[in-house]
Task: structure prediction
Amino acid sequence: MAAKDIYHDDVRSAPVKDGWTITDDPFRLRWGKKDYYVDLGAEELIAAEMPGRRIAVEIKSFVGPSIVDDMEKALGQYMIYRSILKRRQPDRELFLAVPNSIAKQFDEPLGRLLLEDYRLRVVVFHPKKKEIIRWLP
Result:
């Protein structure tokens, strides 16, 4: 199992404030004989007559020396997890959690390209406040 991201506890607290229930920490995916671990699994509980919304959240800190290198690694991991989820739990949405200091990258041409071409879903969080700022797109 991979080490927890430096923002793991901050991001774990944020969805709970918005009414989500953390169901898995970490969220285990099995493909073939290998286990993969997405940082969090969560469910949003909605009115009784409506089904709940289920998500998986991969947390990234982007503290490396190169934002492009960090983005490449995050995108690669995101695509692997999304491919497995599509086959194992197609009703669960995958999100990449990034700190608000990184979110501006998704307003830049490369970020918009990734959001569009890879159908990348991003949840932006504020580490100190332990709150979700916005969901992209």
Q: What stands out?
A: The helical segments are 8-17, 67-88, 100-103, 109-117. The CA atoms of residues 49 and 93 lie 20 Å apart. DSSP finds four helices and eight strands in the chain. The longest helix spans residues 67-88.
